[in-house]
Amino acid sequence: MLKNTRTNGLLKTSYRVFGLQNVHPLKFYSSSAAATAVKKIADNISLETHTDIQAAAREQAEERSSAGNDSASNGVGGFTAPNALKHAYQENTGFGTRPIYLDMQATTPTDPRVLDTMLKFYTGLYGNPHSNTHAYGWETNKEIETAREHVAKLINADPKEIVFTSGATESNNMVVKGIARFYKKTKNHIITTRTEHKCVLEAARAMINEGFEVTFLNVNEDGLIDLEDLKKNIRPETCLISVMAVNNEIGVMQPIKEIGEICRKNKIFFHTDAAQAYGKVPLDVDKMNIDLMSISSHKIYGPKGIGALYVRRRPRVRLDPLLSGGGQERGLRSGTLAPPLVAGFGEAARLMKQEYDADVAHITRLSKKLMDNLLALEHTTLNGSSKHRYPGCVNVSFAYVEGESLLMALRDIALSSGSACTSASLEPSYVLHALGKDDALAHSSIRFGIGRFTTEDEVDYVIKAIVERVKYLRELSPLWEMVQEGIDLNSIKWSGH
Amino acid sequence: MSAAPSRGQVLNLYKQFIKNANQFNNYNFKEYFLRRSRESFRANSKIQDPVELAKVYRDAQFDLAVLKRQSIISQLYTFDKLVVEPVAEK
Ligand SMILES: Cc1ncc(COP(=O)(O)O)c(C=O)c1O
């Protein structure tokens, strides 16, 4: 009790500095004071951070002028090199140079309201939340518990069931390895799917080396698993079923509630990787019988390097921890928590709940506009189910266009091709392969990620840019020429590439 | 419990939201806070219950403080303009 009142007293003092308690906020932040403070800095120091697209544009201009000298010899089929480059990267004079960000599945921008919550931990609240002998520890500990409540509330969980980790990768590893190791005396089988994120697939493969058997379920052409297939693959030795909620490449949503029912009926733990789903689609751990859930903060406009694992308490789910140490986080994840990241994550979760309706309406509207316009192009297909999907992820295949060259041509838009996972490799996406797409189509896929901060102007720009450049690249493609002439490409024998 | 705000007070608060949102240097944040300010003030204009109105007004003042701090930070750490943003010739 004494601890509580003292903590409150301290927090009140620290908040007063921000002008949130007794001082009227409007008065404290008299706008003129704020304006002069900014003006002083803005006038004296240049803090502009340049994107490397500026260097790229300069390089390109040089390349172009040198290429222009012998354009006659370069002229192939009417397209000279400088001409091709001009089409590939359009410069709009009078506009900025930084690309539009449309890669929300990779990560999202940090919400300014999240940063606002985090900053006080870098300026004053630096106590170790596990120090329980003094106020510095109590004040950060209180903020961490508040964050835990926000994270839990979004999925209808109890705050005690939330374990903070470094991200979804760690959470996924914790589950796949931890559950398997805890129950290894009696069970030796894990079920997952072929379209999971690499960290689940690799963790499962690691367990094969420890003597486990793993079933990788197939998906249909929509990217969905077959529930009958799932039931058939359940064995008495199955200890874990792990199916992701929303796929990171194609945005397809698996039937989580139905899978949860099957798992509960067979008394098997059900884990879902909800990195792309948490806060974006309705999730309820009780209604959906979810026993474990991986969550990532940087996919919901929170800071990077933090995430959580939901671990059900009733009926109790037990797992071997990956890390040995001081026994923090119910002994499941030892190590000092990072209060700035935890509090930022908590605020991000709170905002996902508060802004849910507005976000869904905005993202759905922009997604529909983008999809309608892109699919109006001929020989263009949407990858994954058109019904069971999260609208913020649109994956489209442009036949007869090489995805990588389209991306190269789209330097003014930050996008990712289907094979985004390990972006260094040019391997076609295993997810699209699992859907039965051939190499060529998998290679010509691009993923568009729309989020809270995407604007309609950006979507309009992207539609125009993509339509123009797909048409242009197709004109260069001999395959496209054959298609236009009505030649059936399947009748041609290709030599290996 | 604070009393329900007057029409003038709400209008003044709305103007402050728009003004501070406009001060964001970051295009996406600026557009977002402009859009959300308009949307939420419009939605909240339907509230009749004075107790609820007082609460919404108090919460909005908290949000405004955040907006003021963050619009300053957005001006401290700036980046190139986006390809959809017009830049004034220097
Ligand atoms: C489905 C899925 N799982 C896991 C991860 C990894 O998350 P984190 O970056 O938090 O480790 C990602 C993000 O890349 C993801 O999309």
UniProtKB/TrEMBL annotation, chain A:
Q: Which residues cross the membrane?
A: none
Cofactor (UniProt): pyridoxal 5'-phosphate
What Pfam families does the annotation carry?
Aminotran_5 (PF00266)
Q: Quick one: a GO biological-process term for this protein?
A: tRNA wobble position uridine thiolation
In what residue span(s) does the Aminotransferase class V domain sit?
A: 100-462
Q: Which SUPFAM superfamilies match?
A: PLP-dependent transferases (SSF53383)
PROSITE patterns found in the cross-reference section: AA_TRANSFER_CLASS_5 (PS00595)
Q: Which UniProt keywords apply?
A: Iron, Iron-sulfur, Metal-binding, Pyridoxal phosphate, Transferase
Q: Which Gene3D superfamilies match?
A: Aspartate Aminotransferase, domain 1, Type I PLP-dependent aspartate aminotransferase-like (Major domain)
Which EC numbers characterise this protein's activity in its record? 2.8.1.7
Q: Which GO terms describe its cellular component?
A: L-cysteine desulfurase complex; mitochondrion; nucleus
User: Which molecular function terms from Gene Ontology are attached?
Assistant: cysteine desulfurase activity; iron-sulfur cluster binding; metal ion binding; pyridoxal phosphate binding
InterPro entries membership: Aminotrans_V_dom, Aminotrans_V_PyrdxlP_BS, Cys_deSase_IscS, PyrdxlP-dep_Trfase, PyrdxlP-dep_Trfase_major, PyrdxlP-dep_Trfase_small
Instruction: Identify its protein family.
Output: Belongs to the class-V pyridoxal-phosphate-dependent aminotransferase family. NifS/IscS subfamily.
Q: What is the purpose of this protein?
A: Catalyzes the removal of elemental sulfur from cysteine to produce alanine. It supplies the inorganic sulfur for iron-sulfur (Fe-S) clusters. Plays a role in both tRNA-processing and mitochondrial metabolism. Involved in the 2-thio-modification of both 5-carboxymethylaminomethyl-2-thiouridine in mitochondrial tRNAs and 5-methoxycarbonylmethyl-2-thiouridine (mcm5s2U) in cytoplasmic tRNAs.
Protein name in UniProt: Cysteine desulfurase, mitochondrial
Organism of provenance? Vanderwaltozyma polyspora (strain ATCC 22028 / DSM 70294 / BCRC 21397 / CBS 2163 / NBRC 10782 / NRRL Y-8283 / UCD 57-17)
Automatic annotation (TrEMBL), chain B:
GO MF terms here are: cysteine desulfurase activity; molecular adaptor activity
Domain Complex 1 LYR protein, which positions?
9-65
Q: Which GO terms describe its biological process?
A: iron-sulfur cluster assembly
Any Gene Ontology CC annotation = mitochondrial matrix
Q: Which Pfam family would be a valid example here?
A: Complex1_LYR
The family line of this record is: Belongs to the complex I LYR family.
Q: What name has this protein been given in UniProt? A: Complex 1 LYR protein domain-containing protein
